[in-house]
Every structure is written in C-alpha cells, then in structure tokens.
C-alpha cells in the first residue's frame, strides 16, 4: 500500500474527549503504518465562529488558524473527522469552522453550475468520519433517518468533492466504560493502519 497524506481533525471543542482520543489513535496508527499525518484539534483553534454576513459577496478575512486548516485540507489525500453528535447536529464551533473555511472559490465554484449545483473544488480526496453519540444506531436510523450522517457525507463533504466519505458510528458514548471503549479504539486503530 502506498503512503497517503492524511489530515485528521478532532472536531470536539473540549480539551479532553473521546473524539480526541479517537483522532490521536487514528493518527498514531497511520503514522506507524508509514503514512504522512497532520492533526489539528478544534479546541486549539482561535477564530470567530460567526460568518457574520447574509451572502458570499463579503466575508471576514480568515484568521491564521483557519488558513492553516485550509492548507491542511489542500495538502491531504484523505481527511479524517472525529466528532460528537450534539442535539442531532455538529458542535457549534465545528459548524462555525465549516461556515468560515469552506468558502466559494476554495471549496466550491459558484461560477460553474452543473444541474443547478456549484462545481466542487476539493475533489481527489476521500474521507472517514468517526461520530460518537448517545442515540443507539437503530433509533438513529429509524427515528431520525441518520440526518447528521447524511449532512456530513452529502451536504458537506460530497458537496465540495470529498468522496467517498465513510462513516464509523459509536453509541452510546457519553457514559461508555473501558470495556465498551476498548473495541472502539481497536476499530479506530485498524482504520488508521489501513488509512481508510
């Protein structure tokens, strides 16, 4: 297997979390397997989460951390996002990162429209998303149609050309004990070793 350039983003806003442990486990396993890895932790990033405008004619200059984030995405061949699901969606700071950084002219091209949709600009990359939740997978699918996973996969990553995007879902996670977490970590380590 050839070496990949992998960008890992821990999308949990707290300094310690299961998402952080998963992101670090993935990164360590991928490095040990010979892959080139960069990792960022959302809690370390300093930026204004509020896009602040009603359209794309004006937008705030990117803070240095957002510029580094964009650079890491551009550099990567494979993007790994580890995030919790809160209230059926992404943590506010993670959503703010996407709002601020995934801009036209960088992530998608509004000047080129195909079937009513702007052309994606981040093609040639794949993704793995590791989601923790307290909603059991069966209920998440039955009651909520896996809405967050469809958002991340289709309306964010696929929209900008990052595909295929594969999902790993762990639940219930808030009060998971060592016996439950151990096989999850084994799964994440295996994903990192295989760079998938």
From TrEMBL:
Matching Gene3D superfamilies: 3.40.50.360
A molecular-function term among this protein's GO annotations: NAD(P)H dehydrogenase (quinone) activity
Name the record gives this protein: Putative NADPH-quinone reductase (Modulator of drug activity B)
Matching InterPro entries: Flavodoxin_fold, Flavoprotein-like_sf, NAD(P)H_dehydrogenase_qn
Keyword Oxidoreductase: yes
Keyword Oxidoreductase appears in the UniProt entry: yes
Pfam families registered for this protein in UniProt: Flavodoxin_2 (PF02525)
GO cellular component: a single term: cytosol
Similarity field: Belongs to the NAD(P)H dehydrogenase (quinone) family.
Keyword line: Oxidoreductase
